[in-house]
Amino acid sequence: MDTQTLSDVTQTAAQTMSMWDLVWASDMVTKVVMIGLIAASVWCWAIIIEKVGTLRQVKQRSNKFEERFWSGGSLDRLYDSIGNHPSDPMSAMFVSAMKEWKRTNIMKSKTDRGLRGVSLQQRIEKAMMVSMDKELDDLDTRMGFLASTGSAAPLVGLFGTVWGIINSFNAIAATQSNSLSAMAPGIAEALFTTAFGLIAAIPAVIAYNKISSDIDSYAKRLDNFMAEFSSILSREIDDTAIKADMAGE
To answer: Per-residue pLDDT for 140 more than 50?
Structure first.
C-alpha cells in the first residue's frame, strides 16, 4: 500500500468513525469499566445533591430552634411544643435531655440529694451525647461511597487506559499496520476510560471534603449547645437542691 492509498484510508476512517462509534466498538471489558464509572458518577451526584439539601435544611431548622431556645421562654413549654418529633439534631438532643430530666425526680430523698444531682447531670449529658452521635451518623450515611469513588475511580480508569493501549498494540500486531484505523479504537478506549474515571472521581473528592467539613462544623455547634444546655440544667439541679434543703429545714 503506497503513501497516497494509506492517506486515503486514514481520511476515510476519520470521517466514518465518530466518537461514540469508537466507544461502542470497544470490547466488553472496556464497556464494563465505562458503564461502572458512569453509574458511580450518577450515584455520587445523587448523594451530593441529597446531602447538600439535607445539611441546608438541618441548619435552617437548628437556627429556628436556637431562636426559640434562647428567647427566654419556658423549657417545658418548648419541650411540649416539639413533642416526640424533633426536626433537627439539636432539637433531638434537647428532647432527649428533657426526657431524662423529667424521668428523674431529684426531690424524692434528702439524704442522697447531692448524689442524685450529680447522677442526673451525668445521665443528661450521656443522653445528649448518644442522641448527637446518632444524628451525626445519619448525616454521615453514604459518605463512604463518595470517599471510595474519589480514591478508586482514577485507578479503575487507569485500568481501562492500560487495557485500551494493550488493545491498540494487539491491533497493530494483527494488521501489521500503525495506521489510525488500526490504533484508533484502542486509543479511544484508553482516553474514554481515563476521562470517565476523572469525571467520577473529581466531584466525589471535592464534595466529600466540603460535606465532611460542613458536618464537622455542625458537630462543633452541637457540642457547644450540649455544653451550654448542660450548664443550664446543672444550675437548675443546684437550685432545686437548695430549695429542697431550705424547705426541709
So the answer is: yes
